[in-house]
Automatic annotation (TrEMBL):
Source organism per UniProt: Prunus dulcis
Entries under InterPro entries matching the protein: PsdUridine_synth_cat_dom_sf (IPR020103), PsdUridine_synth_RluA-like_CS (IPR006224), PsdUridine_synth_RsuA/RluA (IPR006145), RluA_PseudoU_synthase (IPR050188)
GO molecular function: pseudouridine synthase activity; RNA binding
Swiss-Prot/TrEMBL catalytic activity: a uridine in RNA = a pseudouridine in RNA
PROSITE patterns, A to Z: PSI_RLU
Transmembrane segment boundaries: 20-42
Keyword Membrane recorded: yes
Domain Pseudouridine synthase RsuA/RluA-like: start-end pairs: 114-306
Gene3D superfamilies according to UniProt: Pseudouridine synthase
Pfam assignment, any one: PseudoU_synth_2
Keyword Transmembrane carried by entry: yes
Name assigned to this protein: Pseudouridine synthase RsuA/RluA-like domain-containing protein
Keyword annotations: Membrane, Transmembrane, Transmembrane helix
């Protein structure tokens, strides 16, 4: 009997000997559930089944989903190596974030309604937000008559821990509401730069349309486009996901075009319906791409890069290399490069662009 199973069994034995029910919060979730006017206890066999389902392997997950007519993910589960590496990165980021403070060099734009900053890799968004009041206090006594330490600061967009680049922080509830809605309604144009490792693409530009979701078993996954709208085991639904990609360089051969030149190739669009066939034994190339997400799903670019067989360097969660040519990586190499939208107050079109990180510049060197 496994350790977890023994714990559940001991809890069951203890509960059956109690003259009165214990409070709900003192029990493990797998031990009981609440019904009106009564606590209902599970049998020992039910407990064992619950423990076994926690340890279910990926192939069994897909079989279970198929048998219950749930959509089956088309991308693989998290690689075993990602577990301890991601934990180490999270601990490192927590330490780094606790000491983080914005400087004026991080500010890309600021007016009385919002501030746009260039986030550092390996820092949590919340730490960036928390450091804004001190930055404003150091530079001005008030903003539009409001003391800097009393502003209603909000994150208009979020970036993954290891993704660097542009973040927009609003200075009032009114502006936040308008800008968050613009992001939600996909009225904001975004571009990202990613350094990937994989077989050199045969395409120059491509658009990928698929489903996106996460079952109760784990990570975010790619689903078939035809699965959009279907319910997943955890109760959520598969949503649409679309990203356009453009190759900027392969093994140092290429150039960093301006984001305004980004074009969508309607003739080269893949509507995902089945698993990708990736030859993992082919020669690996160093590829720099620009991505324009036309939806805002969690880990969208990272998932679509994985599906295309060009996982982002350092992105161990989605099959990216942890070690490449004798070097290991502290995080994935993805950078939020540009943002274009109508200013929430003035209505004027604005475009912001962050300086490219060193790894992107190095990718352009033969």
């Amino acid at each position: 009997m496994s350790k977890r199973c023994r714990i559940y069994a001991n809890q069951y034995n203890l509960l059956t000997k109690m003259p009165f029910p214990l409070p709900l919060f003192s029990l493990q979730p797998a031990t009981l559930f609440f019904a009106p006017k009564a606590f209902v206890f599970l049998s020992r066999s039910s407990i064992t089944m619950s423990v076994q389902s926690d340890a279910i392997n990926p192939s069994s997950q897909n079989a279970l989903q198929t048998s219950q007519n749930y959509p089956v993910p088309l991308s693989p589960p998290l690689p075993p190596i990602s577990k301890h590496i991601e934990l180490a990165r999270a601990m490192s980021a927590s330490s780094k974030s606790s000491l983080f403070s914005l400087s004026r060099d991080d500010v890309v734009f600021e007016d009385q309604w919002l501030i746009v900053v260039n986030k550092t890799q390996g820092v949590y968004c919340e730490s960036v937000l928390e450091s804004v009041p001190q930055l404003l206090c150091d530079s001005a006594e008030s903003v539009a008559g409001t003391p800097a330490n009393q502003l209603e600061l909000h994150l208009a967009n979020r970036l993954d821990r290891d993704t660097s680049g542009l973040m927009v922080i609003t200075k009032s509830h009114k502006v936040a509401t308008k800008l968050v809605k613009a992001f939600t309604d996909h009225k904001i144009s975004k571009t990202y730069i990613a350094r990937c490792i994989g077989s050199a693409p045969k395409w120059e530009r491509i658009t990928l349309k698929s489903g996106h979701g996460r079952s109760k078993f784990g990570a975010w996954r790619v689903y078939a486009a035809s699965d959009v709208g279907r319910t997943l085991p955890g109760g959520s639904m598969v949503r649409d996901m679309e990203t356009s990609f453009e190759v900027l360089s392969i093994n140092g051969q290429g150039s960093l075009k301006e984001p305004s030149e980004f074009k969508k190739d309607e003739a080269n669009t893949i509507v995902v319906q089945e698993k990708a066939v990736i030859d993992k034994d082919t020669k690996k190339d160093d590829i720099l791409v620009r991505a324009r997400p036309r939806s805002g799903r969690t880990h969208q670019i990272r998932l679509h890069c994985q599906y295309l067989g060009i996982s982002i360097r350092g992105d161990v969660k989605y099959e990216g290399v942890y070690e490449w040519k004798g070097r290991t990586y502290d995080g994935h190499e993805l950078h939020a490069e540009s943002l274009s939208f109508e200013h929430p107050i003035t209505g004027l079109p604005v475009m912001f662009q962050a300086p490219v990180p060193s790894w992107a510049s190095q990718a352009l060197q033969p």
